[in-house]
Amino acid sequence: MSAGDGKAPLTVGIAGLGTVGSGTLRALAANAEALALRCGRPIRVVAVSARDRGKDRGLDLSGCRWLDDPLALAADPEVEVVVELIGGSDGPAKALVEAALQAGKPVVTANKALLAHHGTALAQLAEAKGVGLCYEAAVAGGIPVIGLLRDGLAGNRVQRVAGILNGTCNYILTTMRESGREFADVLAEAQALGYAEADPSFDIDGVDAAHKLAILTALAFGCAVDFEAVRVEGIRDIAALDIGFAEELGLRIKLLGVATAEAEGVAQRVEPVMVPLGNPLAAVEGVFNAVLAKGDFVGTIMAEGAGAGERPTASAVVADLAAIARGYRRPVFGVPAAALTRARPVPAEGQIGAYYLRLMVIDRPGVIAEVAAALRDEEISVEALLQRGRAPGEIVPVVITTHETTEGRMRRAVARIDALEACLESPRLIRIEGE
Amino acid sequence: MSAGDGKAPLTVGIAGLGTVGSGTLRALAANAEALALRCGRPIRVVAVSARDRGKDRGLDLSGCRWLDDPLALAADPEVEVVVELIGGSDGPAKALVEAALQAGKPVVTANKALLAHHGTALAQLAEAKGVGLCYEAAVAGGIPVIGLLRDGLAGNRVQRVAGILNGTCNYILTTMRESGREFADVLAEAQALGYAEADPSFDIDGVDAAHKLAILTALAFGCAVDFEAVRVEGIRDIAALDIGFAEELGLRIKLLGVATAEAEGVAQRVEPVMVPLGNPLAAVEGVFNAVLAKGDFVGTIMAEGAGAGERPTASAVVADLAAIARGYRRPVFGVPAAALTRARPVPAEGQIGAYYLRLMVIDRPGVIAEVAAALRDEEISVEALLQRGRAPGEIVPVVITTHETTEGRMRRAVARIDALEACLESPRLIRIEGE
C-alpha cells in the first residue's frame, strides 16, 4: 500500500521563510511519505511568501509559487491552509491570519505575541468561520504541550501550569550556576554564541515567556487570553551570590511562568523562582524548555524538550498540519471561544508563597534580631537562616528562607528591613517553588 | 453558554469496575460540564458490566443499566462506545473488544496485554469497520504518551523510544538506592504497602513493561506489534552492591524499555540499565513513569508522570473518550493497519552498547591482567576500573566500565572471564545507556 494514494493532497501556503519556515519545508519534504500514510493524504506546499526572494535558503522551492504579498495566500484559491511564520503581534502577521480565517481557511501559526495579544478575538473569528487556528509551535517549540493540555488532559480540571518557557534565560541561568560567573558576563557570551539576541530584552525581561504563559493559561483554565494580567519580572537582577546560596539550600533558580487557578481567580506570573531539586523542573537545564501541569485526575505531569530552533519548531508546525490533514477539529483554546471566561487576576498581595530573602548587612550584634522582629510582626515564620562567614563591622550576606506566607506580608516585612540602618543594599527577594 | 446544550450525548458502556473503571466513572462525573464544553457534547455512561454487582464501589450507578454479561455491551443499541477495562490478553476482554469493533463501535481500552498480543489484528478489524481503537491508558498511565507520539511527533521519523514503564520496578530500585537494602527485602516491603502484587513476577520480571514497549514500538516506527521480539530481563538479580557502584560512577539503575530503529530492523529490549545522571530518565524516581522519544526533527523529548493508579489512568481513558466525542479519527498505530510492516528483530549479537561489569575475584596478583586480556582479545576498550578495598587472598568486587562494543563481543569476553579460576561468582553485566 502506498502513501495516501489517490487522495487529494492538503495544499499549504507558508508566509515567512526564516528559521521556522525553512525548517517546516524541510520537515515536510524529509518525511513526506510517512506523513501521507499517517494523514491519509499528502501535505503539499503550493505557495510561499517571504521578504527576500533572492536569498539562498538551501530549499528547493521549484514546486511552489512565490507570492510577494503574504496576504495573497489568504485569497489564493489553491491554498487550503495558511501557515503564518512572519512573527510580530500586529502588522502583516495579524492581517494575514485574519484574512485567512475570514476566507474560511485554517491557520497554523508559531506566533506567540499575536496570540498573547489577540488570541481570544482570533479564536472567535476562527470558530465563527468553522476553521481551526493551531499554534503548537507558539509555546515550548518542539514539545507538543498544546496537544498535551487540550487532548491529553481533556478529562481534568487543571489547577496549575508551570514552565521553563524561554531557552535563552535557562541557558544563562544554567551557565551562571555552572561557572559561578555574573549575569552580564554570561549574557555577553550568549550573545556572541548566538543564544541571545543583540537586543536581549524580549527574552531576559520575561516578555517572551509571558506571551507563552498567557496562551497556556487560556488553554489550561478555559479563560480568555489575558497577557496584561501576567506579572512579569526578568532575570537581570539575579546575582551569582544568590545562585550560590540556592545551591547550598538545595534549590535552583529558574525563570518560571506559573499560572494557578485559585478561588478568587487566576494568577499568572513570570519570575525567577527557586525550585527544589526534587521538583522535576529543577533538572531542566541549558536551552531546554519544560512544562508541568497539575490536573485533578492526572496529578502532576511534565514534558521537556527543545523549546526553540529550526527543526524542533518545524516539528510542531507539521504536527498541526497533520491534525488538519486528518480533519481534527477542536476549539482553539479547548472550549468554545464564546465560553472563554474573563478570569479575575488574583492580586499579588494575597498570593501565597515561601521566600528566599538575601540581605547585605553590617555584621554587628542586634542586626539579626531587628530583621527577625520585622518578620515576626508580619507573622512570617523563618525556616532557615544562613550567614556566610564572620566579619565584625563589615558587610556580610545573610540569607533567610521562610515558610509560606502572603506576598503582601512579605513585601511589608522587606520594606521594614530595607529601612534598617544596618541593611546596606535593597534586600533580594525570590519566591521558592514547592516540590 | 452552557455545556454542549442540545447536542446528543456520546453514550458509553464500561466493562470492568475495578480501580480504573471506578476512576473513569468518577472523572466523567467530576468534570462532566467541562468535558461537554470541550467536546461539544456530553459524555454519558449508559451501561456498565462487572463481576460483582453487590460490591460497594462508592459509585452512583443509578443512571446506567447493569449488564451481567460484558459482551452484551457490544450488542446494546444504546451504547455507542465500549470501554474495556476487564484486562487479560484473551478471554472476555478480547471477546468484547472484537465484538464491539465488529458491531462498528469505537473501543477504548487500558489493556496492554491484549494489544501486545493481538494489537495488529485488532487494528485491522477496527480500520476495516471504520472505527477507532484507543489505548492511551494502556501505556504509562496518565502520561498522554500515545497522543504525544501519534499526534505530537507526526512530522518526525522516530529513531528511538525509551521509557520507565513499570512503577513497581522503579519504586523498588529507587528504594534500594535510597536505603542500601537488598531486592528481596524491598520487594517484601512493597508488597506489604500494596505497591507490588502478591505474585509480583509480571512486574519485576519485566513482562508488563514489555507489553507496553511492544505497543510504543509499533506506534513509533509504524510496524506490526511484535511482543515476541522483545528481549526481556527483570530486576530480580540487581544487587545493592551494583546500585552502590552505579552511584559512585554517576549512574542510576533503571528498568528501561528501549526500542530503536536500526538499519537491519528494530531492536526491542526491556532490561535493567545504568543511566547517566545527565539523562533525564535518571531523575524519574519512585512510582513515576517516563517516556523519552527521539525524532529526526523534534530531537529528544521526554514526558513524565504517574504511570498507574485509579485517577491518572482514568484521565487517560477519558482523554480517549473526549477524542471520540470530538470525532477525531486516526489510524490505530499511526499508519493504516495494512501498512504496518513486519519489522525484522535485530539480533542481540550485533547490538551496540557500553557496559558495566562487576566481578567477585580473589585479590591476588595477575587476576586483573587475565580479565584485561579477555576484554582486549574481543577489542573491548576499558573506560574505568574500580576495586573497592584491598584484601590479599580474599574475595573483592572489581568493577569495569567499557566503551561501546557489540553485545556478542561482550558476552564472549564475559564467558571467558567467568571461566577464570579467580572469578568466584558469575560476572554481573549491565548495559550503560547514553546521556
Can you characterise this structure?
Chains A, B: This is Homoserine dehydrogenase. Chains A, B: GO terms for molecular function: homoserine dehydrogenase activity; NADP binding. Chains A, B: Pathway: Amino-acid biosynthesis; L-methionine biosynthesis via de novo pathway; L-homoserine from L-aspartate: step 3/3; Amino-acid biosynthesis; L-threonine biosynthesis; L-threonine from L-aspartate: step 3/5. The structure is a homodimer of 435-residue chains. Chain A is α/β, with parallel strands linked by helices. The first copy, chain A, folds into three domains: 129 residues, Rossmann fold (3-Layer(aba) Sandwich); 162 residues, Dihydrodipicolinate Reductase, domain 2 (2-Layer Sandwich); 84 residues, Alpha-Beta Plaits (2-Layer Sandwich), CATH 3.30.70.260. Helix content of chain A is 35%, strand content 24%. Chain A has 14 helices and 17 strands. In chain A, strands 7, 8, 9, 10, 11, 12, 13, 14, 15, 16 and 17 form an eleven-stranded mixed sheet that branches. Chain A has a six-stranded parallel sheet with strand order 3-2-1-4-5-6, with helices on both faces. In chain A, helix 5 links the parallel strand 5 and strand 6. In chain A, helix 4 packs parallel to helix 5. The longest helix of chain A has 17 residues. Chain A is elongated, with a radius of gyration of 24 Å. Strand 12 of chain A pairs antiparallel with strand 12 of chain B.
The total count of strands of chain A amounts to: 17
**Please, how many helices of chain A?**
14
Regarding quaternary structure, what we see is homodimer
Give me the Rg of chain A, rounded: 24 Å
